[in-house]
Amino acid sequence: MTVNGAAGSKTRRGAKAPKNSFAKRDASPESASTQTDPAVAAFLQNLKHRLKPELDAVRRLILGVSPEIREDIKWNSPSFRTTDYFATLNLRAKDGEERIWLILYTGAKVRETGAKRREIGDPAGLLEWLAKDRCLVTFGGRKDLESKRAALQAIIREWIRRL
Q: I need a surface site. Which of 45, 53, 126, 149 has the fewest CB within 10 A?
């Protein structure tokens, strides 16, 4: 997720963020100080992107799945871990359409154990498998996130259980 104007960045800058109704339903990460990292709060505060509210809502959703989940900045993006990293958020644009990517993985290195394609239930078809130990969930706007909310929570619970 590039916010500094680096080459290849496709993020939209300065767009007014739409109001959302779903962010208030999630537990406030700021109140769960042991889960949050000030670097992530600063990252979001400085971010100028039309999907910023949705990005923050995905962040809150992930943190709300388990009190064991912690966040920080890794690979220049909000990332999440329990004992090891398992997810990173990115903003991407493809064919002129901006999206939020949630990349789920079993750590920085490929492992023989951990979450694998055949072990993670995905009845809603959210997961796009990139390898046996990593996959992608893509979100558009607020309505898309709302429609995927319950399925994503279940996937994240299962993912960290399998790590």
A: 45
